Amino acid sequence: MTMARVLAIESSCDETACAVVDGLRVRSSVVASQIEVHAPFGGVVPELASRHHLDSLAPVIRAAIEQAGLEPTKLGAQLDALAVTDSPGLVGALLVGVQAARGLALATGLPLFGVHHMEGHLFSAFIADDSTASEPEPFAPHLALLVSGGHTELVEVHGLGRYELLGATRDDAAGEAFDKVAKLLGLSYPGGPIIDRLAAEGDPSAVAFPRAMLRSKDFDFSFAGLKTAVAVHLEREGQPRSRAELADLCASFQAAVVDVLVAKTCAARRARGCERVHVVGGVAANAGLRARFDDAAAREGFRLVTAPLRYCGDNAAMIAAAAAAHVAEGRAPRVVVQSSVALDE
Ligand code: KG4
Ligand code: ZN
Q1: Does ligand 1 have an atom closer than 6 angstroms to the CB of 150?
Q2: Does any ligand 1 atom lie closer than 6 A to the CB of residue 13?
Q3: With a 6 A CB cut-off, is 34 part of the ligand 1 pocket?
Q4: CATH number attached to the domain at 142-310
């Protein structure tokens, strides 16, 4: 089998998603966000996430099937496999998706593949919408910077299923730092996109925030100190008194995060001799980060692939594409909730 048609479910955090792909081609991708549910709490409330996945999942699956032009009663014949994110994530949230996928597998007789969420993010840089004319590029070796709300990792991808963890955050993930600093500034959840927009108006050199571990020889990150530095600054100076001051703070904070992410990724690339760098995960949507990586790629002459904006955040198309690649390779189906199988050293 060269190209598998797969339906996948993703429910690891606060997006309920379902998608259908033909290999790397996305036939449909439906995402129901729970942002409005969690925003009043300033972060994801696990119990609420599970309950809302329960409510949203059936209509989201139905919409993905319909948009892909499939017959709900003929899925067994129209698909090659089913997939579901089985780790890592909020356990209750994962279980909703996994149990729905098991039900579908029972009803259709299709094999069910568990996908590691971070392997899914790796595939977000390879998938292409049905409407794009050119053929998607096949999954190939590269250096990946995975930056999301829960993870900040540098992974050398040697091939399908061969992922070498070069470094990771020792405390907060980059997205988590954005969200926590937004909360300190009284901004809404998730803070990443809000800080990103404000930063575009501000002066990144207004406040000198620390660049942790910039000169360490390893490829690890740390963002907890930066968050504390923002808190200390606010204690000393008070909350920003104008939009311009707020924008300056956001720009200065964002520059500190971006500096470290870009410098460490480039150092890992040089050390490993990778000619290709991918930036994936929710934080890969950040305009400042994308611009700085564009500059670095032009300066150092490597090929840069940033995930398309609509596939940076959590979605099921990337999960389906990862599963489709494994199906094509003949991997045996299995689902293992909460066990890190894909990205560990
Ligand atoms: O990949 P994702 O959707 O979910 C996880 O797997 O965690 O990432 C969500 C994270 C949140 O922390 C959010 O604030 C951040 O990605 N994010 C951004 C931007 N858009 C989303 N951070 C910075 N700039 C953005 N434009
Ligand atoms: Zn994610």
Answers
A1: yes
A2: yes
A3: no
A4: 3.30.420.40
Full-model pTM: 0.95
Asked if the domains 5-124+314-329 and 142-310 are classified in one and the same CATH topology, the answer is: yes
Q: Whose CA is nearest to atom 21 of ligand 1?
A: 282
Looking at CATH, the fold of the domain delimited by 5-124+314-329 is given as Nucleotidyltransferase; domain 5 (3.30.420)
pLDDT band at 338 (very low <50, low <70, confident <90, very high): low
Q: What is the pLDDT of residues 138-195, one digit of tens each?
A: 999 999 999 999 999 999 999 999 999 999 999 999 999 999 999 999 999 999 999 9
Task: Determine contact, residues 11/17, Cβ cutoff 8 Å.
Answer: yes
Q: How far is the CA of 178 from the centre of ligand 1 (A)?
A: 8
- What residues does each domain of the chain span? 5-124+314-329, 142-310
Integer Cα distance of 193 and 206 in angstroms: 20
For residue 89, which atom of ligand 1 is closest to its CA?
Answer: 6
Q: Kindly write down the DSSP assignment for every residue of 197-233, as one continuous string.
A: HHHTTS-TTSS----TTTT-SSS-B--HHHHHHHHHH
